[in-house]
């Protein structure tokens, strides 16, 4: 078993992240497997090296260990470009010049009904699909109907307690609820979806352990695995840690930062208990 924790260093490690990392670590430990850390730093505008250092330090303090060197997504942009090329060669991509406002307006046009919101925001209304924009200097989207025509509907095995079972997503649902997702942002040359799929395969991840907030993105990942001939891991989406009012913890909830708990004198065992985990294996 190979699991991973894949933080984006755009803020401190908080209790929700710690829960996620500990869950992935414990799962691997129980099977004498390997736990990996991967730094998802493709969003250069939000990344800070000091967050990366703090995250690693907090994880070590929690008792986690992982092999070196740590994979950093910003070092792998040519590899993502290659995967994107492959999809383009299959005729599955198109360039999009819409900004968020264009998309909101097009999706709210009277004939469109209520805009459908998917795992990536408003489902793209297709404005640029046949415009033939230059692939250079644009966002690149997946031609969802062609992709589904090529590889058929997606299916994955979920072992997380909330959604256990085999999930099959019909093509119509992928079209209406996910749509032509962005594979490469204009300023990045890749996207979370493309990078995560390429890296989980490259690192031989057998079990993707992450929060339920990413459950809805999983069909996109499985589709990309099929298109790129990559193995499909098992998925394990865990519950989210909420604050006292029931809201999901966000990066700005600094009161729940592990560094803040440490400063208050809590121990790693206290953190496990706070997150509702059993003592270290
Ligand atoms: N980097 C993502 C995040 O911080 C997690 C990616 C994943 O686990 O698939 O939310």
Keywords:
281 residues; alpha/beta; 35% helix
Describe the structure.
The chain is of the alpha/beta class. Helices cover 35% and strands 17% of the residues. It has ten helices and twelve strands. The strands form five sheets. It has a three-stranded parallel sheet with strand order 1-2-3. A three-stranded antiparallel sheet has the order 4-7-10. Strand 2 (34-39), helix 2 (49-61) and strand 3 form a beta-alpha-beta unit. Helix 7 packs across helix 8. The two termini are 16 Å apart. Glutamic acid (GLU) is lined by residues 6-8, 40, 196, 210, 214.
Summarize the helices and strands and which ones pair or pack:
Elements: E1 2-5, H1 15-30, E2 34-39, H2 49-61, E3 71-72, H3 77-89, E4 93-96, H4 100-107, E5 117-118, E6 121-122, E7 139-142, H5 144-151, E8 154-158, E9 165-169, H6 171-177, E10 182-184, H7 192-202, E11 207-211, H8 218-227, E12 234-238, H9 258-263, H10 268-274
Helix pairs in contact: 7-8
The structure holds glutamic acid (GLU).
């Amino acid at each position: 078993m190979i699991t991973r924790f894949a933080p984006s260093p755009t803020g401190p490690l908080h209790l929700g992240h710690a829960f996620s990392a500990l869950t992935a670590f414990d799962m691997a430990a129980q099977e004498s497997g390997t736990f990996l850390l991967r730094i998802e730093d493709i969003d250069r505008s939000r990344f800070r090296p000091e967050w990366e250092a703090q995250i690693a330090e907090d994880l070590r303090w929690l008792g986690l260990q992982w092999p070196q060197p740590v994979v950093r997504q910003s070092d792998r942009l040519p590899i993502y470009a290659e995967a994107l090329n492959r999809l383009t060669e299959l005729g599955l991509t198109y360039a999009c010049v819409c900004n968020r406002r264009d998309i909101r307006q097009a999706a709210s046009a009277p004939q469109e009904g209520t805009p459908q919101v998917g795992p990536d925001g408003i489902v793209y209304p297709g404005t640029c699909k046949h415009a033939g924009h230059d692939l250079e200097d644009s966002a690149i989207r997946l031609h969802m109907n062609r992709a589904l025509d090529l590889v058929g509907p997606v299916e994955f095995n979920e072992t997380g307690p909330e959604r256990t079972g085999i999930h099959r997503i019909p093509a119509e649902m992928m079209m209406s609820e996910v749509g032509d997702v962005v594979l490469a942002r204009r300023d990045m040359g890749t996207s979370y979806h493309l990078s995560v799929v390429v890296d989980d395969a490259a690192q031989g991840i057998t079990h993707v352990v992450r929060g339920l907030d990413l459950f809805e993105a999983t069909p996109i990942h499985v589709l990309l695995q099929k298109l790129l001939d990559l193995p499909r891991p098992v998925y394990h989406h865990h519950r989210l840690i909420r604050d006292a009012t029931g809201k999901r913890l966000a990066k700005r909830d600094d009161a729940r930062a592990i560094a803040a708990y440490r400063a208050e004198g809590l121990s790693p065992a206290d953190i496990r208990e706070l997150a509702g985990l059993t003592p270290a294996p």
